[in-house]
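[audit] Reproducing an earlier prediction to check determinism. Same input, same settings, fresh worker. If the tokens differ from the archived copy the diff job will pick it up downstream; this log only records the rerun itself.
[audit] input (395 residues):
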Amino acid sequence: MTSSTNVARRDFLRQTALAGTLAAGAVTWGAPSWTVAETPGRKIKVGLIGCGSVSNIYLPHLADCAHVELVSVCDIIPERAQRQAQRFHIPHHYPHIDHMLAGAPFELLVNTTDMQEHERLNRQALEAGRHVWSEKPMANTLAGGQELLALAARRGLRIWGAPTVVNSPQFAFMARTLAAGTLGRVAAGHADYGHQGPNWSAFFYERGGGSMPDLGVYNLTTLTGLLGPARSVVAMTSIVTPTRTVDNKGEIQVTEEDNAMLLLDHGGGVISHVQCGFNYFNPHGHDGSEEERHTIKIVGHQGTLSLVGYDWAPRAVDVASESQPSYQRLATDPGDYVWEQGASLVARCLATGEEPPFTAEHALHVCEIMIAARQSQATGRRVTLQTTFAPPRVA
């Protein structure tokens, strides 16, 4: 499912060029790459595993989706699964994935568990014949991620991984602006995302957690989506705060990075930088609705393109160029984009035969970047990347 062939930046941008007759910022999808039985009003039976904090955002969106029938929920803390089942009128709840997969039939597993468990549970669901929508990261190792994609292909199934940032109208606008050549020769990109760190669970700070798969994953998805796959990465990571106090375990030792800076080579001279961490003071905290600063910036020799707000909750895009030196604020309409829409969207696509704008290959590429960043820190060397992906389907 992966290839060592690099996608040239010029070809990538040409593939993402969009017809001028379409409304600015609208997002559409191309022809489906798999076949389903298209039935008017068809609903996809969905089971969700992981009834912690993220499920409180996912389940309302799934419950409101016309193409979803919520069949079951599962959690290793049975009381949490029971509580969510009662709250959202879900008929079945289970204490273990084995019971869930052997219980009431469903088609799509939505995985919102601790990130360390994603790869294992995603594999188990595919082996049981279920499609998978996984919160980030989709896999915990490159080999494991490649195995998931191969397994899905062998079984005639689909797997997708968060985040869904390429689905926002602001991302589409930025892709269109780059494709139009407004910035001239693109040179660099920069993105940053951080806060003071979550306090509700230890898994963010334990081995397999960290600020990259929790925070940096958004910016990495956006920048590679706009500038093309990365060819190599060099990075530095660190632990700034060695102990934390969290709700579920009290005081813990931090064993995964809470501070990271990555440099990506996209080819053609284009370089981007991502920084993320759990030690960043922000007056808005973790609330994206109030963020006004530029969190992502693309620079060319004739202009700049800057995202206002976080890429998971974008507010607008500011554009300046030689012909219009003062910033113009554009793409202010959020449309129906919200960061938690991924599972609902793929359920719709499974029901209708549409193709979503994001791919498993893109999610795997971002996983590889984060794994390579840790290798770079450990060795002090630049790490060459193996995977690539086709450009996101934006319009």
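[audit] rerun output stored. Observation attached for the diff report: Residues 1-10, 14-37 have pLDDT under 50 and may be disordered.
[audit] end
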